[in-house]
Amino acid sequence: MDITDxxxxxxxGDRRAxxxxxxxxESGRADHRMQAAELLGALPRDRQALxxxxxxxxxxxxxxxxxxxxxxxxxxxxxxxxLAVDPxxxxxxxxxxGDKTRMDQLAREPKAFIRPSPSQTHLGGVARRTREAxxxxxxxxxxxxxxxxxxxxxxxxxVAQMADLFLLLLAPAGGDELQGVKRGIMEMADVILIxxxxxxxxxxxxxxxADYAGALRLLxxxxxxxxxxxxxxxxSALEDTGLSAAWETMQELAGWRRENGFFDRTxxxxxxxxxxxxxxxxxxxxxxxxxxxADMARLGAEVAQGQTDPALAAQxxxxxxxxxxx
Amino acid sequence: MDITDxxxxxxxGDRRAxxxxxxxxESGRADHRMQAAELLGALPRDRQALxxxxxxxxxxxxxxxxxxxxxxxxxxxxxxxxLAVDPxxxxxxxxxxGDKTRMDQLAREPKAFIRPSPSQTHLGGVARRTREAxxxxxxxxxxxxxxxxxxxxxxxxxVAQMADLFLLLLAPAGGDELQGVKRGIMEMADVILIxxxxxxxxxxxxxxxADYAGALRLLxxxxxxxxxxxxxxxxSALEDTGLSAAWETMQELAGWRRENGFFDRTxxxxxxxxxxxxxxxxxxxxxxxxxxxADMARLGAEVAQGQTDPALAAQxxxxxxxxxxx
Lengths: 326, 326
Description:
The structure is a homodimer of 326-residue chains.
Chain A: H1 3-11, H2 15-26, H3 30-42, E1 50-55, H4 62-75, E2 80-85, H5 87-92, H6 104-108, E3 112-114, H7 123-139, E4 144-149, H8 154-160, E5 165-170, H9 183-188, E6 191-194, H10 202-219, E7 231-234, H11 243-259, H12 262-284, H13 290-304, H14 310-320
Parallel strand pairs in A: 1-4, 1-5, 2-3, 2-4, 5-6, 6-7
Helix pairs in contact in A: 1-2, 1-3, 2-7, 7-8, 13-14
């Protein structure tokens, strides 16, 4: 791959070049990783999309929301990329967003770009690749990058590390219990959207929204939140209501954070985080080769059988990797 | 240090040699780590102590319990070592068990050996060193190794990774709430001991014990638990009551696990865990040197300022470490 040429094509908005570049950053091959780093380094760093993380358990209507919300944004002339971090793809190879037919309007929209979650052997791998895909989409001139994930906790944490704003999508639910949403995810959310606020569920949605608004007031007050944030709002992806109010709210929060320095500071911290993660992952990747795996398995078995001490086996493993202990 | 000579001295019960060897495994210096691994590899692997993890928040009487329990064991002719994993020592340099005067009887007892938590920069370091100190005490012929920690969650997990049994020490408390004990710690406990079951607190202790017995029944049933375990019991370290019943209970559980294969299987898994942790820690230790720290700081600042992409900076860091990306 010609790096300079590919970079130019991405900048000029060539979707096929973007798709190929994302495939490159998703590859685990050593030469691909080097090329990917070179490409990311060659891209201009002056284009900035609004990066929005979006989480919600299955069944809350994430796909329908993304479709309606994305269509509204493209209708305003904005270019929208949709990416995903799917921890289940790390295990099963299956992935959310894999089926673009769930968002068939948005998938056909020229101003939109949808990419399913990469399959990787572990969440850390999925996350790093997605962070790099976000950077590629940003360089390609997208105005909004939506990063979807599914509400299980760990994947939200990594999405929050690459997003400017974090949305939590919830379904209307009776009772005052908070739908088993993990406290950690609640604490991450900048805006909670109660979806399906339509038809028979409207009244329930109103109650749910009030419950969460109350919980949010108790839960968090961070310096990077202006008055009134985090906020709970109602939307109906089906009836297309509340979506523009939600978008205005996101812009209000992003604008406030930009003015008060939190936007850039968060991005700086995130970039440092990914740099450090990437270095650590590369050092540990020395254990991924076939020979290293075989040595780890053999020494691990000796240790398990009590034939040698873990520390001595570790020294032997490091020697086989060509390291002396640092 | 002459490894063969030191190993011989440890095996023959030389306490000064043991103390020096623990100091060696606690060192972070590269040559010390190599020597430590050599020493651990040179020790016989046929001696087996019962390794008991012990957790409890400050104020429940851990020191008094260890003193009374340890004196009871040495009174039965058993040799007892007491070690500690203290996450606060990773931050402050202070340590639990630092003050042997809190256990002045046991500290003077020839059959007992007390060692405070090592100071390290992070919990992982404290944990690995303590695991190695346990192995040294075992080779030195101790019958029981008590590993003390303080109830904050993460340190319990690492202690459970080096213990055959896990005890949770609690104070009697009114009400039916579970004293804010983290669910994860409850799930780790094989035996919960309600301490201070004496004097005015006796009735409260009885109620607390019943509460926890009920909670344990709901919480866990693992294949490695015989009928009736996990168990809640009352002890008074002050009045020396319940301690021998508690010891019998521990022996009963350990015996059952030995007969049913769980004891050895758990030890095998633990040994493999520490081997893998040790390899990973050594690979990441390449970032600990002065030059590496300076490079990380410089590249991290460039990344934070948006001058370069995290992935490209990571490649540059790996190159400076003499690595090409794997």
